[in-house]
Amino acid sequence: MIRRRLLPSAAGRLGAVGVAVAVAVAVLGITAAELPNHRVVPAGGASTGAPSPGTGLTGAATTHLVVPDVIASVPGGLTEADMAKIKKLSGVRAVLAIDGARITVNGVLLTVLAAPAAALRPWTPPTTASSQRLWAAFQAGDLITTGQAAAAAHLASGGNYPVAAAVSTQISDGGTALLGVAGVDGVVNQAVGKKLGLVSNIAVLVNAPAADIRTLVSQVQAALGASARVVPLVPVAASTNLPVDTTPPTGRPTNYLQLFQESAAMYCPGLSWTVLAAIGQIESADGQNVGPSTAGALGPMQFLPSTWAVWGIDGFGDTGAPDIMNPFDAVPSAARMLCADGAANGGAGLRQAIFDYNHADWYVDEVLALAAEYANEY
Questions:
Q1: Which helix (H) or strand (E) element contains residue 2?
Q2: How many other CB atoms sit within 10 Å of the CB of residue 241?
Q3: Are the C-beta atoms of 229 and 23 separated by less than 8 Å?
Q4: What is the rounded CA–CA span in Å between residue 236 and residue 36?
Q5: Cβ atoms 342, 349 nearer than 8 A
Q6: Region of 141 on the Ramachandran plot (φ > 0 left; ψ -120 to 50 alpha; else beta)
């Protein structure tokens, strides 16, 4: 039952649940007007998956999302040499350099980050990454803030407000969103960030899911030197305390959120739907990249054909041979297999079931961390 996931080419989100990122306060606690210009290191790119097949489901994410492990900063910004050192560390799969500083918006001091949309989007929380409206506003040069920041600065979506940074100008408010990093109030695209004088490469997000988090923090610290601030973004051991939805199924789902919720309720009572959602996102970005993977895995839940032959079932009233590519069959089949492995028992049983889905401890932690974020958002 071993299956290897199709690894994303760009990974992560801007944070994990409940993390108070000291970097935002300690390093971005000065204004853009006080900071010199620094050379730019190209930010990490991102790839979008193939369009979701014609399943009738809506609401799929736009790209792969994977939990980031560490955020690090160097006063004055990271250099190209700093970035090269981090990329060479064992287990590092993706990095994202981000610009940032504190600026005054409508008379209120806000901590703002900047990066290109294609690079930043995969590192944001699921609901943020999937919002087409939000990213259209971001691309147009609008400021996207947290709800708390918008309230503090009296910002309303579509309004124009004065900004005091390296320059004095006006900026449009593009709405509010979950950003996922405590202490960060807003984001702008890289072109706007340059105009405002944000510090280039003030911090870097690091994705290294196979690494021991304590070891990774030590390695990044050694690579960047004593002046660097390095903060872990994931717990040492991800929690298995996830919500279970006991609402009776309402029929054939119309979007992926309903599909995960109803599959858990119907095919594995006691399993949190957030685990199915996390696996579906990590494996295929909710049906956007259905393989085959390098190991031959297929479909939205990335089953090996040999495993599918054992666990594949028709779901939600479908008839005929179970279809590995059909999410209405694949997600219930994943729930059924997880259940047989003890997922509904929670705790160690849930961890073992996820491990059986993909034989890697880092995969278990990544699934649970993303599941916790889904629980927090929904």
A1: none
A2: 12
A3: yes
A4: 37
A5: yes
A6: left
Specify burial of residue 36 (Cβ count, 10 A radius: 0-12, 13-18, 19+): exposed
Q: In this structure, how many other beta carbons lie within 10 angstroms of the beta carbon of residue 153?
A: 20
Beta strands in 58-142, from DSSP E residues, in sequence order: 70-73, 94-105, 108-114
Q: Confirm if 309 and 338 have CB atoms less than 8 A apart.
A: no
Give 335's DSSP letter: H
Phi then psi for residue 204, to 5 deg, are: -140, 135
Torsion angles phi and psi, residue 293, rounded to 5: -75, 175
R_g over Cα of the chain: 21
Residue type, 121: R
Poorest-confidence range of 221-225, 305-309, 327-331, 341-345?
341-345
Q: What is the pLDDT of residues 277-319, one digit of tens each?
A: 888 888 887 777 777 877 888 888 989 999 999 999 888 877 8
Q: How far apart are CA 262 and CA 198, in angstroms?
A: 45
CA–CA distance from 97 to each of 207, 341, 376 (Å)?
12, 40, 26
**CA torsion through residues 212, 125, 184, 99, sign:** positive
> What is the overall mean pLDDT for the chain?
77
Q: What is the value of pTM for the model shown?
A: 0.59
With a CB cutoff of 8 Å and minimum separation 6, the contacts of 373 are 13, 16, 17, 67, 125, 126, 180
- Between CA 181 and CA 146 the distance in angstroms is 10
Eight-class DSSP state of 58: B
Q: How many residues does the chain have?
A: 378
Q: What are the distances in angstroms from CA 364 to CA 180, 246, 332, 370?
A: 21, 24, 20, 10
